[in-house]
Amino acid sequence: TLPPPQPPKNPILYILHVCSVISRFTPEILRKGIHGDTMTENGCEYRERVLTMDTMNPNVKRVEYAVRGPIVQRAVQIERELKMGIKKPFTEVIRANIGDCHAMGQKPITFFRQVLALCSYPDLLEDGKFPEDAKSRARRILQACGGGSLGAYSTSQGIEMIRQDIARYIERRDGGITCDPDNIYLSTGASDAIVTMLKLLVSGEGMSRTGVMISIPQYPLYSATLAELGAVQISYYLDEDNCWSLDISELRRALQEAKKHCSPRALCIINPGNPTGQVQSRQCIEGVIRFAAAEKLFLMADEVYQDNVYADGCKFHSFKKVLFEMGLEYSEKVELASFHSTSKCYMGECGFRGGYMEVVNLDPEVKVQLTKLVSVRLCPPVPGQALLDVVVNPPQPDEPSYDTFIKERTDTLATLAEKANMTQEILNQVPGIKCNPVQGAMYTFPRIHLPPKAILEAKEKEQTPDMFYCMKLLEETGICLVPGSGFGQRDGTYHFRMTILPPKEKLKIVLAKIKEFHQHFMAQYS
Amino acid sequence: MMSENGALPLRGKVLTVDTMNANVKKVDYAVRGPIVQRAVQIEKELKEGVKKPFEEVIKANIGDAHAMGQRPITFFRQVMALCTYPQLLDDNKFPEDAKNRARRILQSCGGNSIGAYTTSQGIDCVRHDVANYIQRRDGGIPSDPDNIYLTTGASDGIVTILKLLTAGEGRTRTGVMISIPQYPLYSASIAELGAVQINYYLNEEKCWSLDISELQRSLQAAREHCDPRVLCIINPGNPTGQVQSRQCIEDVIRFAVKENLFLMADEVYQDNVYAEGCEFHSFKKVLFEMGPEYSSKVELASFHSTSKCYMGECGFRGGYMEVINMDPEVKAQLTKLVSVRLCPPAPGQALMDLVVNSPQPGEPSYQTFIKERTDVLSALAEKAKLTEEILNTVPGISCNPVQGAMYSFPRITLPERAINEAKAKGQAPDMFYCMKLLEETGICLVPGSGFGQREGTYHFRMTILPPTDKLKIMLNKLKEFHQKFTQQYS
């Protein structure tokens, strides 16, 4: 045992020391003193909880997720107030904060829902109302399920037949480049797989702690997960003046800097981008791959918006495809995980939590660990797995459901393209708002110029200036957006992320209201 | 270090077993571990036509009811189909009560679609229904929907709470008390989070009951090297199947209060109670019936799921937890944490709604529903009994009554020679036994070492899920195998 510490000479410190000595012997007195009220509502003695802000996991406290953060909580409150009849300058809250297509009126693909209904209640296989192509897919899926039921656990990596179908889809998409079904892991949305890979990658301590490169702006799943895992976030800035493109020199800068205080191991890229919507050029993707190979970084390619490409001249290039087209020098070396989901594109089936990842060049021993890790949670939701199967195995030209399917898919994607264009045009008419082209994905991330008076008032209120702006917008118009600070942005710049999902007519109104609000805001704070 | 085509030397990878997350390496999950991997391999060999002493692998390793032939509840699947494809609401083949529930669920979904994200805590009306269910189950004790979190199976909720509770370093690192034997989600999660596992042994001689003195012993010992914060209990038990008495539950609650422990009650098998004289008592109910001295103090999280009971809907990943007396600031953190993953699967949420809001007397689907539910539960009860009886006729196998849940966890006596051979192979003796059983009979069980057991004892966990006839055959093959094994190694 150590000898008791000497009391400090400094009088203030001495008093504190005496207090701490007293508290060691009379914790209850002090505790009650600190907490004031000693009686709970039902007259029982106050008792300090086991799980408090002080005793809980500190990493969890650092987690932030703006997409469902404070502004959304206020929006929900306002919705309740409206329901209770409280008068507001608007009649409804418009939730343009989250990429939730169906919630904003987008219809599900008929064929997909038919197959899923057949899988859920196989008695319907006798029902003449369902087309044969839907039935045959349902039968095939059910045959691959334990006991012929969606209710059985699947293998932890996901139903084998579905992984085979996904591998074939990837091969078709990537011009024939081989895909091994054993490298496919189905997941509970893409988020699940992204978290799993980051978890595997995080190790070390202090200077050897894993660093993970992620774009600024980024989808805050990444920052939240890195905070939770206690990994080091390495931010690389996308170039707003060049349509949010990626500069290898900026990657290099960020990496050099980061090497001083952590061990950079992974590079995450979202393409098409969220929140920024840029679709990276093939050249850029090659540059990133070369960079990852040279700097020994594990590549994570978040490609959930791969069908959401709108702008002329833009095209989706999968990282896998580009990697393999660059030849063995790269395709044998670079460790890559690519992610996809049923939540976006033209399906919008967020609630089903369907997704997958393909791992390329993963160390075989690590792969065993990965398989073991996912086995603890048993399996991803089987309805989501089934949905993924029909996504990669949609109606073919000679099948009964083909025409309807193609029409529905085309309509959804064309509408999104229209809305992307419209959004960019209208916002760019507003002095003080500058909107890069929405090349892909589902969001616009315009830059807003805020008057110094507004910035000051925000800081007084201890709010980021764009949160201040968005909160006012919400209170005055009912429009719920997410401030750019939730995604990251260059210091001194402000943005918001808005989805392009509301139906066209409503979107026009939303954009007009934002224009009005912005002008009013500028005038008010000039 | 050359790659296969003799080209450039294999470069050191970024992600290797040396650079990966060290905690993940410590994770083990026996329910889908090495023996299951071997079983899958054997299935492939059988498919390829390789000759074996059996025609099929019987997967009695996992609590997967449907995979073993149990039928889903008709009503539930009807409502799921209606929610999935609402055009069916015009189809007169579906009963009105199914349609009403589907409409109600869809109205609660964004854009009236189960394809929309839900709130992160789960669909409002489902949480209300869950709260009502809990209130009815617990004799009227109120349940606040705001204390309900829907989850991706119960596992998700359990991991989330353990994550919140894990803090500190070295001697102040969070210690988590869990039964031995336990369901290895707990040991796996504790390993992954880097928390400290504190084992308390269930009493095999007394039907796997829980002794407070044992809780006390294990806690005392643990305090020397960690900061015990949580006590986890699985009731009805997995793998052991015991249904704790009300007295025991009260004692555990008193212990948790006295020792300042957060209580986690895993109650996913709450409808799976078979033995005479056994009854499920929810921790919430007992807590509140013990009066405000306890009910205002104990921090409790109770977990339930759509995977077990009579539903067996494992693949839907439906579940919920109810949190009691959680610090409001921590609760805000919890809500924030679950928001990052957006929401649990909407189909699973819808299914949970039906479980807590099943057909009532007077509704068209009631008769069929009751019959199906009763049939499933009584078949399980029958099989629980059958299993216990048959296994207890085998010299060297001793099986406690399967009071509840879905498993038997019999103790097997292994000859010295077998134990030695296992150890020479670097295998746990019960793994050695189970592997041989698998290779010779095609029956896949999980060795007791995967769940934990007292030193020097050996067990296996076997589900009671195969259809009665197949179960009988399986039990007899086991009997035969055990006798042969005992002889071979005597």
User: What is the CA-atom radius of gyration of chain A, in angstroms?
Assistant: 26 Å
- Binned strand content of chain B: 5-15%
Multimeric status of the protein: heterodimer
Low-confidence stretches of chain B: 1-10
Strands ordered across the widest β-sheet of chain B: 2-8-7-6-5-3-4
Biggest sheet strand order of chain A reads 2-8-7-6-5-3-4
Number of H- or I-type helical stretches of chain B:
17
Mean pLDDT of chain A: 93
N-C termini distance of chain A: 66 Å
**Cα shape of chain A:** globular
The average pLDDT value of chain B, as a whole number, equals 96
Quickly give the CATH architecture of the largest domain in chain B.
3-Layer(aba) Sandwich
Portion of residues within helices of chain A: 40-55%
Which pair of chains has the greatest number of interface residues, and how are they split between the two chains? A-B, 105 and 103 residues
Q: Label the structural class of chain B.
A: alpha/beta
CATH-defined superfamily of the largest domain in chain B: Type I PLP-dependent aspartate aminotransferase-like (Major domain)
- Overall number of strands of chain B: 14
Question: SSE layout and pairings?
Answer:
The complex is a heterodimer of chains A (526) and B (490).
Chain A: H1 11-25, H2 27-35, H3 58-62, H4 70-83, E1 94-95, H5 110-120, H6 132-143, H7 160-173, E2 184-188, H8 189-201, E3 210-216, H9 221-229, E4 232-237, H10 248-259, E5 263-270, H11 282-295, E6 298-302, H12 319-325, H13 328-331, E7 336-341, E8 354-360, H14 364-375, H15 382-391, H16 402-428, E9 433-434, E10 443-444, E11 447-448, H17 452-460, H18 465-477, E12 479-480, E13 482-483, E14 496-499, H19 504-524
Parallel strand pairs in A: 1-12, 3-4, 3-5, 5-6, 6-7
Antiparallel strand pairs in A: 2-8, 7-8, 9-11, 10-14, 13-14
Helix pairs in contact in A: 1-2, 4-18, 5-6, 5-15, 7-15, 8-9, 16-19, 17-18, 18-19
Chain B: H1 22-26, H2 34-47, E1 58-59, H3 74-84, H4 96-107, H5 124-137, E2 148-152, H6 153-165, E3 174-180, H7 185-193, E4 196-201, H8 212-223, E5 227-234, H9 246-258, E6 262-266, H10 283-289, H11 292-295, E7 300-305, E8 318-324, H12 328-339, H13 346-355, H14 366-392, E9 397-398, E10 407-408, E11 411-412, H15 416-424, H16 429-441, E12 443-444, E13 446-447, E14 460-463, H17 468-488
Parallel strand pairs in B: 1-12, 3-4, 3-5, 5-6, 6-7
Antiparallel strand pairs in B: 2-8, 7-8, 9-11, 10-14, 13-14
Helix pairs in contact in B: 2-16, 3-4, 3-13, 5-13, 6-7, 14-17, 15-16, 16-17
